[in-house]
Prior knowledge:
Elements: H1 31-49, H2 64-67, H3 69-90, H4 97-124, H5 131-138, H6 165-169, H7 176-191, H8 195-216, H9 224-228, H10 232-264, H11 269-295, H12 304-324, H13 331-360, H14 375-387, H15 391-397, H16 411-414, H17 423-443, H18 449-469, H19 471-506, H20 518-539, H21 547-572, H22 582-585, H23 590-598, H24 610-622
Helix pairs in contact: 1-3, 1-4, 3-4, 4-7, 4-8, 5-10, 7-8, 8-10, 8-11, 10-11, 10-12, 11-13, 12-13, 14-17, 14-18, 17-18, 18-19, 19-20, 19-21, 21-23
Amino acid sequence: xxxxxxxxxxxxxxxxxxxxxxxxxxxxxxxxxxxxxxxxxxxxxxxxxxxxxxxxxxxxxxxxxxxxxxxxxxxxxxxxxxxxxxxxxxxxxxxxxxxxxxxxxxxxxxxxxxxxxxxxxxxxxxxxxxxxxxxxxxxxxxxxxxxxxxxxxxxxxxxxxxxxxxxxxxxxxxxxxxxxxxxxxxxxxxxxxxxxxxxxxxxxxxxxxxxxxxxxxxxxxxxxxxxxxxxxxxxxxxxxxxxxxxxxxxxxxxxxxxxxxxxxxxxxxxxxxxxxxxxxxxxxxxxxxxxxxxxxxxxxxxxxxxxxxxxxxxxxxxxxxxxxxxxxxxxxxxxxxxxxxxxxxxxxxxxxxxxxxxxxxxxxxxxxxxxxxxxxxxxxxxxxxxxxxxxxxxxxxxxxxxxxxxxxxxxxxxxxxxxxxxxxxxxxxxxxxxxxxxxxxxxxxxxxxxxxxxxxxxxxxxxxxxxxxxxxxxxxxxxxxxxxxxxxxxxxxxxxxxxxxxxxxxxxxxxxxxxxxxxxxxxxxxxxxxxxxxxxxxxxxxxxxxxxxxxxxxxxxxxxxxxxxxxxxxxxxxxxxxxxxxxxxxxxxxxxxxxxxxxxxxxxxxxxxxxxxxxxxxxxxxxx
Length: 624
């Protein structure tokens, strides 16, 4: 006999009055004794009717809670009353053993029937009790960390429910009825000392549901060896799938299961904990083992962003994870989540160090054609731009790992202190500095000094534009950084213009309107033609990728070159008009210089050669 039945009950009155007609030898029966005997008789009638062991009974084929809900309520009340009778007679001094044996036999039959009903409700309502349905219907009523206050908190509340059940059921959620029935049965069985049997049934059904749901989400148990052998494309696909699965698993699957366990087994904290743990622990372990396996794989820069995605997913879901798996028996799940964050954080730090080292170790000796943007510049800046999308996550990962530098960063990085010199700001600024230092070395590969400055202007302009156009990057480095490096771009552009066009400028006399001889004028025209054609031919293949920078460079050259040439041209063109061969000597009209300049700095896809354009210029000048 279950120990739970032997709870203390109010003792029978010891001095109850007796009738004078009752012989002294007759045993004294109290009112309580009579009431308890009646409870046993009523329970015997109903329990026997629904006895599952009776093969010939029609009740073996139907469900009490599905087919006769009013009698189901009465059945639970009878079991409760039977339990009260058993407690009463156990504590009674004058009780025959036969009464207790009868009551115990009835209780066992009732528990067997309730086991069957519990199993039947769980089996028939797999769809109605799926995690998504439960979580959506209960989210406004409870949180996973707090046992829900049921609308039917105990078996005794059944007595107060309305006789007209249709009014109670009207408007209820599809999962509400089976959940209430399961809770009523669980309360009854736990109170009678049959909680283990109830939990066993629940585990068999619900764990199967949990494993199936996780399988459909694409989550599978994997080993480190399996993950390490995967091609990155395959592993990345699995990571994407996991990122989608973990949101559904935490917010719906495990949350819904926790709600269900808390509701059904609200009568016992220990039972609801053990039930949820046995159902979910294995599935949760499978789910949270994957990120740690990814973190242990071989590190490479291409894996950085998916690793950050994994870290962010767990970090974002951590409040829910802590709440759902708050039991001591599920602490291993929480530990697994923490370990995953630790390992993923270590992987991110290692990959960022490797990324910096890769920049510094880039030893390519081939100059970029036309002085354009170096592939390293594009790769590093795009990489850094994507990194800043994870600023908060990176701040968490590097919170206890500040960057240690032998010398502080130059003033140009945080000179006016318009930004918070956070660990992430310093790290991003350092990576950009490493890139710019590497580009300084790449510029030395050009034999033409003007082209090397154009290369530096192109690449720094690309870096500045990336930072200016990225909200996150600009926030981290600040307006001062941007302004300082924009000035550096102008400095590089000025050096290009001075070194690239000085020969053309010097081909004209210092004073274009000075009175000089015809021979001297011819000499200057020849010098200008040779210098301009040389520069034009060379720079027609050079490129400036930024349209504004390209236009600014052309305007700067035109402002210096065209006015000086126009003055010289107008001063000496008329005097040379009568001489033979003047058309070949004075090749360019001032108006045509702007056209030639506009063709420059587009690279090989730009304008044609100076010789192909010469005929137009020559014909124009002849008409003047």
